[in-house]
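TL;DR need structure tokens for one chain.
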Amino acid sequence: MAAEAAGDPTARFVIDTWVTFGLYIGAVGLSLLLASRRMVQVIGLAWTVIAMECAGIVVDFYKIGRGYMTVAPIVWIAIHAMVIVSGILFLRRAR
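>> reply
TL;DR here they are.
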């Protein structure tokens, strides 16, 4: 935040990118909550979340390939995998 306050354009870009990403994730989460009352509506959203989590795994492997420390990406890969498995189990039950 200090770098952004000092006018660093890279820091400003990173902050704006993460805020935007957070708003997208929040919109999907809110949509899931609102659609959860109607199974037909939530199925499409569940596939959207599964696809987003798969993309998250790809990004984590990309970070590892780029030389980032591996602990955090591996933890995130496990979290993404748990969400994917939960989503698939939910979709199987919905049938």
